[in-house]
Give the backbone structure.
Amino acid sequence: MDTTSPGRDRPSGGLRGEGTRTALVDAAVRVVEREGVAAATTRRIAAEAGLPLGAVHYWFRDKRALLAAVIAALLDQVRSQALAPSGQHAVDARHHGGLEALHRRLAALPAERQLALFEVTTHALRDPALHHLAREQYAAYRGVALEAVASWAGEGVDALPGGRTALATLLVACLDGLTLAALADGPGRGDDGAVDLLLHLLRGALPSPSPPRTG
């Protein structure tokens, strides 16, 4: 699903075509990224998509259902563009590049998308009917963050206090905080070596590998 194209051509196949639903979700994502969740009214989204208001009501029973589709679309974008497994990027594990690459991909997302992700997450947390989407979002984040260090940390992560679960939670909390800080500080401000420090502390916490057996 392309949520970045600004085109507003009416999809073919009438209001019941699957292209209409895609166009509405894409339009809703654009509105949320530019103006926030509060601006994502059904009327505003229909106008953004170049479709009649009835198209929104045909595909989505209410604004909550439409926002659920927006959250899912944003998460799909993050998974494919920023949180792709590190193994797909030929990361050199000897230099602990997995976590660094993950951070770079997060930082490379447009600021509007990063802000939209934070906003739809908090919106989902305020709505019991959407809360599961926020849980799924952060479960995905934790899984990929853990994979980013698994190639070089290996079995040592299981010896850390709390094991893999605690490490994944810590990594996501750190990267989430760095992403939000970057939005606040504006372009041109780096992470001040925070990722390097996190890696340094993690290396120190990991147990030394056992020597190979002989004889």
Remarks:
- The longest helix spans residues 131-153.
